[in-house]
Design goal:
Elements lengths: L2 H21 L2 H32 L12 E4 L2 E6 L2 E5 L5 H13 L46 E3 L6 E4 L23 E4 L3 E9 L1 H6 L2 H25 L19 E5 L6 H10 L9 E4 L1 H8 L10 E5 L5 E5 L2 E5 L14 E7 L4 E15 L6 E13 L6 E6 L3
Parallel strand pairs: 4-14, 8-16, 9-12
Antiparallel strand pairs: 1-2, 2-3, 5-6, 7-15, 9-13, 10-11, 11-12, 13-16, 14-15
Helix pairs in contact: 1-2
Length: 406
């Protein structure tokens, strides 16, 4: 089946399916949908077969080794044929791997055509006789993700989510017998969530998807999901609210809840005390520190007046370091600025906040899909979701800011 016929047949079936759907013939519509799916599967199978045939056609024919004079160098068999040097990795062939297994299990000598009888094998060459294999793992640079998402409040409401808010609470008063108290008004506002689409897609050609290792595809999907997670966490911390969720640091702090550090002066014990002092008592229990690892290390060597360390790192049964400042948990991330002796503008290097006071509403949960581009035959792996996020109560936010003196 060629591509033009496939597209023509598919369009015809889709038009017929639409006509049936418009007419309300659901049973006939379902049958037509199955015909479309069968056609897609048939075309995909034909494409894979064609790609496999092309791959076989591209292989270079090599004269059998037993008819040649061979020598081994660096794990390759070099055969001279009509004054042309041909190279092939015979140690990955089925024949050699079977011979190697018999040699290991039963001591059967490896056939002479795979060894160099005229050369002395040294320890540096032993590795070349082990069959060539590929470990099913792709080594990539690691990135720190997934620290913020588990901490915030996650919701999944259809339509525009609105959360009522109020900054006024009624006050009780003592009254005498038979007396009454003033009637008080309770006013409320609301925070409304919008829809922002987050999308990540990776495309590969049909030929690549057919001939590459399965682990390659798995790594693709992991990369897509990791990229989506990183974008979400970046927005939670520092999103500006334009085309993306509004982050925690985009909120204006309540008066008196910002601790200013002098540019060029390292953070001091008094700065931590000032931040704890600025945190309202009602938000004391669940607020945590957010900062980069570099900023935290600036606190590690700090001691109080009794020479007791301010920052502690415990290695508990969780199998990972548990960091605290004055007994309060520290959540490290790579989405904000680190402490520096000089800054070009006012820079927040750390903040206290209860992450439960940030709501991330997902109207369409992250979904990974695969589809074929009918024009190019490329296979696309994509992840997509509709999401918005906002701080619903900023009273637990206490920032530590380096003031630019310029």
């Amino acid at each position: 089946m060629n591509k033009e016929k496939y597209l023509s047949d598919r369009k015809k079936l889709m038009d017929e399916a639409k006509t049936l759907l418009d007419a309300g013939s659901m049973e006939a519509f379902e049958v037509k949908v199955k015909e479309v799916e069968a056609l897609d599967a048939q075309f995909e199978a034909a494409c894979k077969a064609k790609a496999n045939l092309n791959a076989l056609n591209d292989k270079t024919a090599v004269t059998p080794l037993e008819n040649q004079t061979v020598r081994v160098e660096g794990g390759k068999v070099l055969a001279k044929l009509d004054d042309t040097l041909l190279t092939d990795d015979v140690f990955n062939s089925q024949e050699y791997r079977m011979a190697f297994m018999k040699n290991v299990l039963a001591g059967t000598p490896i056939p002479a055509k795979f060894v160099n009888a005229d050369a002395n094998t040294t320890t540096s060459e032993v590795g070349s006789v082990i069959p060539t294999t590929i470990m099913e793992k792709i080594i990539e640079k690691l990135e720190a993700t997934g620290m913020i998402l588990p901490l915030v409040t996650r919701t999944n409401y259809k339509g525009g989510l609105s959360i009522p808010t109020s900054s006024v609470k009624p006050v009780a008063s003592w009254v005498a017998e038979g007396a009454t108290s003033d009637k008080q008004e309770k006013t409320t506002g609301s925070i409304t969530f919008n829809y922002y689409k987050l999308r990540c897609a990776i495309s590969v050609s049909l030929e690549v998807s057919v001939v590459t290792l399965p682990i390659f595809e798995t790594t693709f999907i992991n990369n897509v999901v990791e990229a989506m997670t990183k974008a979400l966490e970046q927005a939670i911390i520092s999103g500006d609210g334009t085309g993306k969720p509004k982050g925690i640091l985009a909120e204006a702090v309540v008066a008196g809840q910002n601790v200013e550090l002098t540019e060029g002066t390292a953070p001091a014990y008094a700065d931590l005390i000032a931040a704890e002092e600025a945190l309202p008592l009602a938000y004391e229990s669940e607020a945590v520190w957010f900062m980069t690892k570099k900023t935290f290390m600036a606190f590690v060597g700090m001691v109080d007046s009794q020479k007791q360390p301010i920052a502690r790192v415990n290695y508990g049964i969780s199998g990972k370091p548990e960091r605290t400042l004055l007994g309060r948990q520290v959540v490290l991330n790579d989405y904000m600025s680190s402490y520096a002796s000089t800054v070009t503008a006012d820079t927040i290097i750390a903040f206290l906040f209860n992450p439960k006071d940030y709501v991330l509403n997902t109207n369409y949960q992250m979904t990974v899909k695969r589809y074929e581009d009918n024009v190019t035959d490329d296979l696309v792996t994509k992840a997509i979701m509709l999401v918005d996020g906002k701080v619903v109560d900023k009273n637990s936010l206490v920032t530590m800011t380096i003031k630019n003196v310029a």
